[in-house]
Amino acid sequence: MFESKLPNLGTSIFSQMTALANQFEAINLSQGFPEFDAPELLKKQLNHYVLEGVNQYSPSSGVPRLQQQIAGLAKRKYGTAINAGEQVTVTSGATEALFVAIQAIVRAGDEVIVFDPAYDSYQPAIELAGGQSVHIALHAPDYAINWQTVAQAINSKTRAIIINTPHNPSAKTLKQQDLDALKTLIVNHDLYVISDEVYEHITFDGTRHLSVMSDDVLFARSFVISSFGKTFHSTGWKLGYCIAPTALSVEFRKIHQYVTFSSFTPAQHALADMLEQQGQHVDELSAFYQQKRDVLSGALKESRFTILPSEGSYFLLLDYSEVSDLNDVDFCHWLVEQAGVAAIPLSVFYQTPNNDKIIRLCFAKNDTTLIQAAEILCQL
Q1: Which of these, 15, 39, 71, 336, has the minimum number of CB atoms within 10 Å of its CB?
Q2: Is the pTM here over 0.85, yes or no?
């Protein structure tokens, strides 16, 4: 009898809800990908490099031009001097970067603290490394981290803490006091940080993204992970990167070379051109997505849903307590099958599901789609 390494995992909720959305021809606000296309320059340059024959392996750590552009972006955004050749590794998506970072530091018997609701790739990667996830639940409506609770969860087996800001799915951002508390724990207990910052350029209402790269003490023990798919509306390209101190990058690259070796070469060149020639795209993302957040939340004001604040990412949480008594999984099934809108139940992001009646909507969609979905939801 074959024994699974991940016996408790099946098809992800994102695939399930997208399949249901397709089956019932529903408006899909569940899976977190943009409905609109990548920038024209990016597509043009990809085609250029493909036709020019730039189609073979790139260096395992990334195309040097792209590494330099990433380092320059980090310097411009966070004031951090990065050695591009030694500290920037281009990966086949942020999920690969997360997996590799976890494999690089987690050993059999180690514990890694994660905050629920959590992105669903963290725990499987920890388990495959022989470690154990220690889940600390965050609660609606503020999803704030109680750092005293975190301190109490740390023991001799604790190896790392995974943070995610802006946070998927709560759409919250970590504040300076959070990073200060994290730094104290990391230093006092000799821990590592895996900082999932894939929505780093999407923050709202003047909120500034706080990267662990902006703090020398934190960065010295951190893997910082980001995503070109999120930044340039190109999730299907599966390109991301990891920035880490040189010693950690050495260990990261040892594993990366045997996972993908290198990532899509012509796209790396196209991304380098995009960052060099249209770097303002990054700076315009917050305003672009804030407008979409406001379109959706504004169109839902007359609904029976309670709208939770969205500080970053391209997600909006709704409390449906006044709409239905169903649990969130059943409600999302009802919503797609009977109302024609696909959403994600928040309980699936928890190790121990709670009774909160919260769903997640993705607003990385065209305005007409958002308004059409809101009109349906307002009728409930």
Answers
A1: 15
A2: yes
